[in-house]
Amino acid sequence: MRHSTRAFTRIEFAALIAVLALLGVLALPLLAATRADSDRAGCFNNLRLLGRGITVWGDDRDGLPPWITYVSRGGTRPDVGVKAGSAWFEFTTLSNELVTPRLLACPADTGVKVASEFSNLGGRGYMATGMRSLATSYFINMDNLGRVPVMAVTGDRNLRTDGITTCAQGVNNADRINFNSGNTTVWTNAVHGLQGHLLRTDGSVALTVSATLIADFQRLLDDNGSAHLLRAR
């Protein structure tokens, strides 16, 4: 008995390639959305664990984070004078509570380095030259005294600010947000698109848009109607 085999014709093969290409094009948005959702979930979890670490650190210090606690009480705020503030340096004071500096790198932050330990060892240490700010995705709100539940503590680094100033919390190079000049506070397109996550005092994490940012900062301002941040980088 003879068995016949039938090969694809050129037209059939071309049609198959076209169908596969079309399926690939249709799948790309779904894959991109899945990746974005995964990155947001990772960032959400990072901030949630970061908030827990800040809370544990402040349990014996009136609920304050290290950057607002005076040096004489184990924090980093100068008892006298001011310092040059860096978000990465402040986060190192939480090394025992955070366990790993991987939490300080948002999965959606393109180009951020991921340190595997709190040390100054090159290539993997968070405190090593070449890591530090480059391994940090989150700013610090210097005006959060732990009293207002919905006030921002930290969040994604892609915030537009109004320049550098000296902060009453003892930092001479804090980023300033001036609410008296209108709604100048917006998310840029650097991390999660024109939105970003905020960790609040009560431990909650929210993905916010620019229009809702003021509510998370304008709770406890200085006499000039300003908020002050330590930028990630």
Strand order of the largest sheet: 3-4-7-1-2-5-6
Q: Which spans have pLDDT < 50 for at least 5 consecutive residues? A: none
Helix tally? 4
User: How much helix, percentage-wise, in residues?
Assistant: 25-40%
Share in β-strands: 15-25%
Oligomer: single chain
Rounded to an integer in angstroms, the radius of gyration calculated over CA atoms is 23 Å
Q: What is the mean pLDDT?
A: 85
The major sheet is characterized as:
7 strands, antiparallel
Q: How many E strands?
A: 7
Judged by helices, strands and strand pairing, the structural class is: alpha+beta
What's the N-to-C terminus distance?
A: 76 Å
Q: Which overall shape is indicated by the principal axes computed on the Cα atoms?
A: globular
Give the tally of structural domains: 1
H/E topology pattern: HHHEEEEEEHE
Characterization of the model:
The chain is an alpha+beta fold and 233 residues long. The chain has one domain. The protein is built from four helices and seven strands, in the order αααββββββαβ. Strands 3-4-7-1-2-5-6 form a seven-stranded antiparallel sheet.
Considering the chains and any ligands shown, give keywords for the structure.
alpha+beta; 233 residues; 7-stranded antiparallel beta sheet; 16% strand; 4 helices
Topology readout:
Blueprint: H1 10-58, H2 87-92, H3 95-98, E1 138-141, E2 152-156, E3 164-167, E4 171-178, E5 195-200, E6 205-209, H4 213-217, E7 226-230
Quick rundown:
The chain has one domain. 27% of the residues lie in helices and 16% in strands.
